[in-house]
Amino acid sequence: xxxxxxxxxxxxxxxxxxxxxxxxxELLNATDVDPATLATPSAVSVDSxxxxxxxxxxxxxxxxxxxxxxxxxxxxxxGDGMGNALDSPTDVAVDATxxxxxxxxxxxxxxxxxxxxxx
Length: 119
What we know:
Elements: H1 2-13, E1 41-46, E2 52-56, E3 61-65, E4 71-75, E5 89-94, E6 100-104, E7 109-113
Antiparallel strand pairs: 1-2, 2-3, 3-4, 5-6, 6-7
């Protein structure tokens, strides 16, 4: 599963016309996000600014990775903080204006997160 996620990130984040010698590197692993946890990455999306979003089903959260490799947890198991929890996110998408959409498979819900982080 993790190998498939890394391959998906490479396909989405790097141009298909890359020249020989183009190098790939790991964007995120479980030790990069302390004190948060990354467990069972399940979805990836890339926005027009090159930010990569990774949903993790077992840790019930989503991370944003900027082109300068700043890693931020944008939503966790508490969901919107108003009683609507996030459980097992299995999909993440970004629209043209930078809104992030997260689907909670276990919680049977979806969240919209604005570019400033409002859920």
